[in-house]
Design a protein that fits this description.
Blueprint: E1 3-7, E2 10-12, E3 18-25, E4 33-39, E5 46-51, E6 57-59, E7 67-72, E8 77-82, E9 91-98, E10 102-104, E11 108-112
Parallel strand pairs: 2-11
Antiparallel strand pairs: 1-3, 3-8, 4-5, 4-9, 5-6, 7-8, 9-10, 9-11
């Protein structure tokens, strides 16, 4: 059974940092492109950052220079380091894995507020 389990969400003040992690189970992790998506209340799910099997990364413009995605194929995990967070980063963050098939995590809430 495939599972993507996110952790690290919570409440953080504007300008602060947070690190999200996603542990993958039931897939050959190194064969999957990984990504983080988010959905704000009332909004659509949007791509935040992605990392390919080769380690190539991409980011949505609003997080470039603030967020960093990384993967550890030895531990089957993908992380999202979030720095200088803003209130508009508030959302549920989802881990995503894609190869011939794709899988979603159940999400972790990130709230940026003072």
């Amino acid at each position: 059974q495939v599972q993507l389990v996110e952790s690290g969400g919570g409440l953080v003040q504007p300008g602060g940092s947070l690190r999200l992690s996603c542990a993958a189970f039931g897939i050959i992790f190194s064969e999957y492109d990984m990504a983080w998506y988010r959905r704000a209340a009332g909004g659509q799910r949007e791509l935040v950052a992605g990392i390919s099997t080769e380690g190539n990364t991409k980011y949505r413009d609003s997080v470039k220079g603030r967020f960093t995605i990384s993967r550890d194929d030895a531990k089957d995990t993908v992380s999202l380091q979030m720095n200088m967070v803003k209130p508009e980063d508030t959302a549920v963050y989802y881990c995503f894995a894609e190869d011939d098939e794709y899988y979603w995590g159940q999400g972790t809430q990130v709230t940026v507020s003072s």
